[in-house]
Amino acid sequence: MTRAFTIGLLGGGLQGVEAAVLARRAGWNSVLADARPAPPAAFLADSFRPGRIAGLSDLDRTFGPCDLVLPTCEDPETWELLAGWSSRGNAVAFDWPAWRLSRDKTASKRLFEKLAVPTPLDHPQAAFPLIAKPVDLSGSRGVRRLDSPAELARFFPGGLPGPGWVVEEFCPGPSYSLEVTGRPGDYETWVVTRLFMDQAHDCRQVLCPAGLGRAEEEEFRALALRLAEGLGLTGLMDVEVILTPEGFRVLEIDARLPSQTPAAIHWATGENLLVRLARLFGGPAPACSAALSRTAIYEQVAPGAKGLESVGEHRLGLAGPLRWEEDFCGADLALTDWARDRADWVAALIITGQDPAEAKGRRLEVLARLGRASNRPLAPSLEEAGE
Questions:
Q1: Domains in the chain, start-ordered, CATH in brackets?
Q2: Which residues are within 8 A (CB) of 218 and not within 5 positions of it... i.e. 6 or more apart?
Q3: At residue 155, what are phi and psi to the nearest 5 degrees?
Q4: Which residues, at least 6 apart from 266, have a Cβ–Cβ distance to it below 8 Å?
Q5: Roughly how many angstroms between the first and final C-alpha of the chain, as a whole number?
Q6: How far apart are CA 6 and CA 46, in angstroms?
Q7: 45 close to 9: Cβ distance less than 8 angstroms
Q8: 175-183 and 186-189: which strand pairing?
Q9: pLDDT per position as a tens digit, 220-259
Q10: Residue 108's pLDDT is what?
Q11: pTM above the 0.90 mark?
């Protein structure tokens, strides 16, 4: 009997959850390592090894039997340690130069300018409101909206942003994401997803496919391919944009496995982007399977002051070990630490339908069942999410 492909995952937070879920769907074994004793992905991987990875010998001991290793954490020191390990001939599915550039928002902005990619105007040319972002943090971490010169002066002494920040105009409009895989001269783009944010600009729900018009989708794909070629990417990256009344504005790129969107794409289309990524670094070829054409909704919910609420993904990252629950209150899949007697829990729900109307209808049914099971009403924010 052929041994199952084994992938090592270094980090059990949001990216580790995503990778463990996709590895399980691919039929692979997964070995997860995390310094924490009980990270969110601990129960989702086949094997969990707690403890800090402090040196190359730790990596040899933890991931030596793996066919391929993927960094799934947000710790730059750990990633650089893994880069050194990969330079010794160990198989790691990662493009280090692309990651270093994409995680630095100042360097990314320079690349956008070089490639003539439309982005939000920078301060001080931009009018209020403004968005302040830490240069080296991903997603919504540390993001702050500043509505006036007085708020800018309170947030930054003297009203002048420091070198560790990007401050740019706030762009109104819907948010979208697009994943790219491949190597220079040979890229593929996948399904455009719609992102719904909470008040802290953290993604609380993904809709796949996004429902963009054909012309807009083609424009977005062209932007993403231009960025991949300009970055010289070998691997996987996602591109996040806002569609403003004046057109697309690229917010950021991340040359790593993102969270939420790959799972939404998988349940909507059958494509597994973890398999596509691994193939670029010597992993097995994607299995041939019938393509799906469904609508998928990926959403986090948790109890709040007004009942069940739609919450940003970082709430999931703060959870303890999540369980894999199929047909949870009617959802296709739930990743959750829910228990009937717990007051504090979170659930990431994946719900599908033949079309958007069916998926949204099923979503409301699932939430109603979950509300009854947890004896909580649906908060207005939850009933309106995704509309």
A1: 6-92 (3.40.50.720), 100-117+172-279 (3.30.470.20), 130-169 (no CATH), 295-384 (no CATH)
A2: none
A3: -75, -40
A4: 22, 25, 272, 273
A5: 49
A6: 10
A7: yes
A8: antiparallel
A9: 999 999 999 999 999 999 999 999 999 999 999 999 999 9
A10: 94
A11: yes
